[in-house]
Fold these 3 entries.
Entry 1:
Amino acid sequence: MLKIERLYVTVGERLVLSDVNLEIAEGEVHVLFGPNGSGKSSLVMAILGHPSYKVISGRIIFKGIDITEMPTEERIRLGMAATLQHPPKLHGIRLKELLNRISDGRLRDDGLLRLIDKLRINEDLLNRHVNVGFSGGEIKKCELAQAFALNPDLLLFDEPDSGVDIENLELIGRAMSELLVGKSALIITHHGHILRYIKPVRAHIMFKGQIACDGNPEEMLNQISKNGYGWCEKCISMKKS
Amino acid sequence: MHLDEEELSRALDKPADYGLDLDLSSYITEPKEEVKLEESIVRRAYEVGVDLSRKDSVGSFFQVDHSVLLKAIQKKFEKDVELMTIEEAIEKYDWVEGLMWNLISPYKDKYTAFAAKNRRGGYFIRILEGRRVYIPVQACLLLYSPSITQCIHNLIIAEENSEAHIITGCTHHIKSVKGLHLGMTEIYVRRNAKLSFTMVHKWGPGMDVRPRTGMLVEEGGTMLYNYVLLGEVKSIQSYPMTMLAGSNSRISTNNVIYLSGESNVDLGGGVTIKGPGSKAELLTNSVVTDRAKLVSRGSIVSEAPGTKGHISCRGLMLSDKAEISAVPSLTSKNADSELTHEAAIGKIAEEQLFYLRSRGFRLDEAGSLLVRGFLDISSMGLPKHIEKMIDSIIEQTMKGF
């Protein structure tokens, strides 16, 4: 579904990803751990094709097509969607209108209505301007609804569980787990709360712009909870030597 | 109010405080031909939100140049609203003249003085005490003859405990490539009355517009003043003044502006808060493109306790040759008064464009969606069908953007 090969990415003069390799097969959900500033969000931006994230070498292959130079919207139309960690406010654009346009007028479709209902996105929120005055939980729910309205095959979730209270976490977790059936996904999480509801098949740790290691999600999360990311540095330097 | 002819004559040489100065001798004051209510005129009115065929309005007023072609109130609303020409109102009520030139000084500048000397028409709308009407009263003022000056005096009174919506569209006929619109409007919102006044302006590159507006809001009264300006105009200078005279009174002005071509527009709004517990809010959202220039002014002076005032100016630049200036001013004469302002001018934010592209929109689709969002009128509190109509007018203007 998604294959990233030896990817190097810069933002301005700064190298934010170096030699990143990652492969997600059809129907697989992966999780990406890593400390703040390690490059997790940069990877999502690079996969989406954010204009500020320049690929200086390497390739991103999606559904067998090299999308490295493809405009963002064309990548989306190929069947990917993402939830962003810090989405901008859109004054004057109502959530309802945006969802309707994203889904090509399918807002009244049962599936989408059920999702809106499941996420407890009420009429009041639907009528508000996107992300303007939204709480942390509302932002995440609104991101999820938009991503699923695109009906994608691959989903990228950037911190779907940060800044969310317990009640909303459960709502979001359950909705994600139900909607991810049969889809591929990469879930970025800093502290792993979302893994109470979703069981990825594989985990990766990003450290200083590199994938430091891959492995079993539960084991890795336990390891990180006990020892933090201190080992990663040694690990990377050992790999290099 | 009695007009001092000598002082008026002196004021004819006085330029306005702001905006381009106009030579009034280059316009004519008498139309060269009679106008009739023909289809092209009716269609033009429709383009500024006035649908003369509409059944669901309280009444309609339509003036072309100096001729009032239509003034009618639906029978079932005759006990709620009075609608007539200003001349008829002066004739009918001896107190009407006392309310004229009360909220606008005729000696303020050459435009007020000229309008005072050459007044021809204008509407008188009075919502009677305790009456509430939820469908709009509509008025359209249209310039037809080439180089004509339209000198109009409007008077609106929302009597105690009344409520109404007025929608007024001002425009010109395509035949008229040059013209000057001088519309004097005085609005009285009496105790606990609520008036929503929405004005849609659509002009052309040869049209100059100098409206003068004065509003008075009494105790517990609410005034919602919405202004939508779309497209290209040669010049506009306007600075509606509001006096929040009574306690717990409120004014909210909401300007939505899309300017193109060589437009030169200086828009302001001034509020003096005298009533304790009163609130003023002046909001402007503007989009400028081509070589259009906009100065957006706002001023709130608070003289009473427990009051609030806020000025917001958001400007979106779609061209490097366009220009927006925001000039907010706050004056507090009471410690128990909270006054704030915010202004932000810039181009469409890259992050917003990327966000929408990440939802599958093409760059041009994302751009127009964001611009359209900027011209949102949903907070104007309009009746739904009026909101829809103005939305479609904006959509029409934005076509091809």
Entry 2:
Amino acid sequence: MSINNTQNNLEGVPPENLQFDKAAFKELFKKHYPPLCIYCRLKYSFDIHLAEDIVHSGFIKLWETRQTLASGISPISYLYKIIDNLSLNTLRHEKVKQQHAAHQLRTTSEDISAATFNSIDLKELSAAIDAAIAELPEQMRTIFELRKFEGLKYAEIANRLNISVKTVDTQISRAMSKLKEKLSRFLIFLILIFNVLLKM
Amino acid sequence: MHMEDNNQYDELLVRYLFNEETAQEKAIVENWLNASEENLRHFNRLKKTWQLTEIKKDLTYIMDEANLEDKWNRLEQDITEEVERPSMRRMLISIAVAASVLLVVGLGWIFFSPHKPGIPIAQHTETKNDSLAFAVRHDVNTTGKEKRIQLADGSLIILANNSEVTYREPFADKREITLIGKAYFKVAHDKAKPFTVTSGDISTTVLGTEFTITAFRNTSHIIIRLYNGKVVIKAVDKTNKRMKNDVYLLPGQEFVYGGQTAIVRTFSLHNNAAPEQIMTGDDPSLPDAQDRPYFMFNNQQLGEVFDNLAALYNVEIVYNKKDIQKIYFTRKYNRTDSLDTILKEIGTIHHLTITRKDNAYIISR
């Protein structure tokens, strides 16, 4: 089943592989469901559950069209495309849409989303985020986490820790710079992906 | 401003990212962002960095192997019955309707046990705090009937008797409600302001789409049932040992918290229950409240009653939903009562035939 080996090579799956059975579809699902959800979550800023609904629908759509899929289109890049379309349809119902489109239009237009995103190892990403936060100096981390986990305003953090708002300001900014550096190899991917003009 | 200068603007940009900037700073930043693609890219790196840290818990959740198996099973179900596509439809509906949310949080035995209410009044307290420009509102309902409270954001609370809610209005960044007792919530959709109900040790946050929850309080257990949509349940105290991780419920699942446990399990789903029925009849009864010598049903659908009895006596009770539609049942039993007696009595009252087969009871008309 060559669908399993398409992680970095999305194109060029021979058409006969598209006639997949349920077992092959399950493998495809298990491998690609998590990254697709994260992709949708990040790209469109949906909460994870809306992302899941969309990805779930995407898989149903792929299953339904499995026999009529044009040759030369890999199921995985097709999935990414369906999910982009479903997401944009969802956004149409929200104001975010315009803002999003504006950002998208301003930037480059290479269709590399699927291939690039698919090559990110989620486990590695997860570990890298943990490590990057853990490595922050203690006070900086505390301040950052109060903002992140409790959503506190600068003034509330300052109050809670009995420090000045200015200190919070500086520390959060430094924390962000450090994280940005530590996560840079993932950021490069993400920025490439998400600044791509979407083909509708 | 050029790229090499960018880093010194980070403090300002981070402030902007977190909505901490002044109006003047906002104008400066937006101007700067529009000035060049380079600037925009620089800001995007900061923004994506923040997003990456935000998705950490989503990553953990989505990579969970056990979850993945469940999700496959649901997908398999959907692609097997290709004509019916519930999840697709659910998604579209949730978008179209902009997600109204039903939330019922209940108080268990105390609520049903013969309880002498005080003077029947709907009490309403408002504490004004001018410096912060919001009011803390505290509604107590002892009128003996349900009380409707319309919130400024468009949400509706129907507060049951002997119940109280506390919240501040207008809502700030978050919509936070504290509940003692039982209430039905219809939550106006607002993605930017999560809606959270705190009851006892547990908080329940609405994540979108349409659903209902039922929970107990004032017993040792809190139960949250999800009928449709999604909620996330968190421990109020982050160091709570019984509940280390957030719990995401799927439709048909209930979360049971109490004793030494915090578990998620499935229950039988009544899809068509209207909010009114949920308020009056759909209380999940009988968490293993071993400390009480009796259990009660309070105007509950008969199907629900049978399900509960089946769970209590660890038997199977088979019934045809059509046979017992629109039958509601109210009665108190002792734990020592035999199931045979209970079922015989229900059968007599509602003209149903009870047949016993091994460890199962079959109900027919």
Entry 3:
Amino acid sequence: MAIAAETTRTSALGEQNLAKRRFGDRAFKWLTLLMALSVFVLIVLTGYQLAHGSQLALHKFGWRFLTSSDWDPVNEQFGALPFIFGTLVSSFLALLIAVPLSVATAVFLTELAPQWVRQPLTIFIELLAAVPSVILGLWGIFVMVPWLREHLFPALKSTLGFLPLFQGPIYGVSMLAGGIIIAIMIVPIITSVSREILRSVPGLQREAAYALGATRWEVTRIAVLSYAKKGLFGAVILGLGRALGETMAVTMVIGNRPEIAKSLFAPGYTLASVVANEFTEATTDIYLHSLFEIGLVLLGVTVLVNGLAQLLLKTFGGPGVKPQQ
Amino acid sequence: MQVLTFTCALLVVAPLVLVFYHLVYSGIGAVSWDFFTKLPKPVGETGGGMANAIVGTFILLSIAALIGVPIGVLGGVYLSEYGSSKLNWWIRFWADVLNGVPSIIWGMVVYALVVLPMKGFSAWAGGIVLGMMMIPLIMRTTEEVLQLVPNGYREAALALGIAQWRTIVQIVVRTALKGIVTGVLLALARVAGETAPLLFTAFGNRFWNHNLSDPIAALPLQIFSYAISPYEDWHRQAWAGALVLLLLITAINVSVRVLTRDRFHK
């Protein structure tokens, strides 16, 4: 009797425990799921808020907003073309400078450098990635721009001055200065992602090329770089995504003038910097809504570019390719 | 070719060396006791410090951590421990895309969500925007370190009859705790230097702020407004502020790297 009672008691206890555990398991799973889904909430919220905030401008200007180069808060005429132009040109310049440097550095780090150099150099580049934009901008204003004005730009003008790109007055703050500062900001990202990509190229690939009698350069070119093409392209696109949205450093050196100029020495303006500069000054509703629409354009472009980069990197795969922060 | 790539590597490293050099050269003179303890002086008077901005940055980071850490860590737990691979793929994908969204856009969103309804710039808004930026960062790093925990640990705990959620909390998360903390610290270091999203959320303040519903100063904001000002003394202080901020961020980065040389990191 006593034993039977004991067993029923324990089994009841067990069931109770089981129910409790099931509840705990389920509750915890739902809690974590909810938190994970916050990612979707954030992206939807962002899109919605920007679209909602730009209603007036969307309504009033329509597609003309993207093709008009009027930016006249006084007469309430707004067009984003000078900013789109500035963002594209400065990002393009940045890629032009950053891509060869970053890929070469990644090759140096994975294929050529002596072992003892690799680790410290990698850490150093990661530290460069951690320098805040505003600090680089400060350095840009007081060190880089004066140097460009005194040395690099006059030299460019006297050697390449026959091109319209390098004509006109030199102010220092300019589209080219913006491009250079963005290049400095995206080099660490492209370098470290490219490095991960190159590291994930199988060693067999290299050995096979060596066995065929290829030189070191040929091994790198044929066996490594062409194998990793897709991944490297992903790294570059990721860098482009950062370049398009770079804000503070660019704002401080690009000159902030909404004009479409032929010369790279002329000041420019980007989507991100016009928001940074004018958002708190926007006095009328239509002005504020136009800035929100600029944000919407920027969001659309960066989501597309980053999505493409992630697809490229994820399909290139390899366990060595870590997500980039 | 070795020479060529080496030259490129040098060119990549050069800006960091130059930035460090100029920060120390121009900033060290203005880093003084006053800098850490005094409020900014009115325009035209020299001296004063950035005490309020330094405290402000820490307040903003605390609010951000309150939002970003629980959501990010629990989300990371879901990605690592539960979920269908398809849903997880999409969550990862969007988290990575969110990491690439320009920070200024977050600022606009929080302006619409928090600043407009509260009818003013505030420390809350600044903290919320930084916290939102931390969520995808922490989620991804947490997932990564949790996946480094050997499966045997989970199986052993479950075989002992421990509930799954307690296995996760008490065995898996605890084993990977160091890595999770690392991820959180790196995320904090990343948002500590953010300026763009604070421009129209925290807004900045030249005085002490004891009310989180009022605008608050932050180190990056102060550096920005001093850098673009026309005053020589403010430029000096901008350099000093930048030096302090960069030292703070570098200190976190370096100490994290030293701390994590354990078995879960190659």
